[in-house]
Amino acid sequence: MPIRYLPLDPTQRAHQVCRSRSSSQSARAVTQKYHPHGHDKLPIPRATGWQSVAHSATSALLAHNEDVHAYALYMSSRTARCAQQMAPAHQKWGADSTRTNETAFNLAYNTDLPFFEYLSGKEDFMTDFAQYMRNVRK
Fold first, then answer.
1. Do residues 89 and 113 both lie within one domain?
2. Is the Cβ–Cβ distance between 44 and 53 less than 8 Å?
3. 86 and 25 part of one domain
4. Is-contact 94 121, C-beta < 8 A?
5. Where is the segment annotated Disordered (predicted)?
6. In whole angstroms, what is the distance from residue 84 CA to residue 108 CA?
7. Domain range holding 124?
């Protein structure tokens, strides 16, 4: 299956979706204009009805900035689970609980450990959290 390349240049914001051969040729021209040496491109496999797709400014940022990607990944994969458990946690322990092991996190991850104790025992979780925090501090 042939692979098409489009530029990942968020400053140019080349929001381009190509559906025809002429559009595909246009996409190659855009690629050559912004990246004449062929660097910084993402392969997009050809799918039925589509020949190539370019990044939006947001998706290019996620693809190129490791800290932003880590932030988005942590929020969507780790924190979203906790958000879903906010109402059940309030029902179970009340909104006034100050115990560190009576939180939405505890329900989401089925643990009696406070967040940082749980984190210290899970290396992959700790790595994800550290990457997330690196972006938060910027």
1. yes
2. yes
3. no
4. no
5. 19-40
6. 8
7. 65-136
Cα torsion 84, 67, 129, 110: sign: positive
**Residue at token pair 């958000």:** 83
pTM (2 d.p.): 0.57
Residues 47 and 79 in one domain: no
Instruction: Decide if 75 contacts 132 (C-beta within 8 A).
Output: yes
Helix/strand/coil percentages in the chain, nearest 5: 55, 10, 35
- Report the domain count for the chain: 2
pLDDT, tens only, 10-68: 433 333 333 333 444 444 444 444 444 444 455 555 555 555 567 888 888 888 888 88
Same domain for 10 and 34, yes or no, is yes
User: Tens digit of pLDDT for each residue in 79-106?
Assistant: 999 999 999 999 999 989 999 999 999 9
